[in-house]
Amino acid sequence: LPPEILNDHACLELTEEVEEEPVEEEVGELVSWWNKNAEARINDFKAWVGDTNQPTKIFCRQHIARQKYQSLIDCGCGIAPVNFGYAEGEYQINYTGLDSCHFFIETNRNNGITMVEGELEKDLPIPDNSYECSYCREVLEHLPYYEKALSEMIRIATKEVIVVFFIKPTKEEENINYWKEENLYHNLYNKYKMET
Asked: What is the pLDDT of residues 160-175, one digit of tens each?
């Protein structure tokens, strides 16, 4: 994305650094945070990600329309603001949401959104090459590590994978940050390591 678009996402100031310990149990605990807290904190979540006209969302929608993609899976879709952005615009796409949070899945299905239940950091219940574009926004930095999730996104896409970060990867050493009090990761990844 162009710098003027990327710069509208400020990096979080991270106060606690913890050594990387991405074990299977932590993945389960991470997912359960959403299952335990999503409904009670839905207004917070809407404030964080609900704006369908945020500049990077507009940029991605315009890019996808220019490419004339017909299908998209939104990995870690939450309340599906990407879907609503397409619904408000002129370009229609076959949208599918993917999430592990039962509250988000049920809410989105009640709104007529096609949903797949799955954890991006595990084997997804989706065949290879199922969507023209796989997309995730502000998700990978909140997983114990990105490699499996990115691999799954590549596996299920036929044309393009789009990843938008809130905590932008940099040239600095990666920094795996686990916030114990929130039971969430806020990781800073190394851009060049991700690209290789």
From this structure: 999 999 999 999 999 9
Q: Which of 167, 112, 181 is nearest to 137 (CA)?
A: 167
Q: What is the pLDDT of residues 126-184, one digit of tens each?
A: 999 999 999 999 999 989 899 999 999 999 999 999 999 999 999 999 999 998 887 88
Q: Is the pLDDT of residue 29 over 60?
A: no
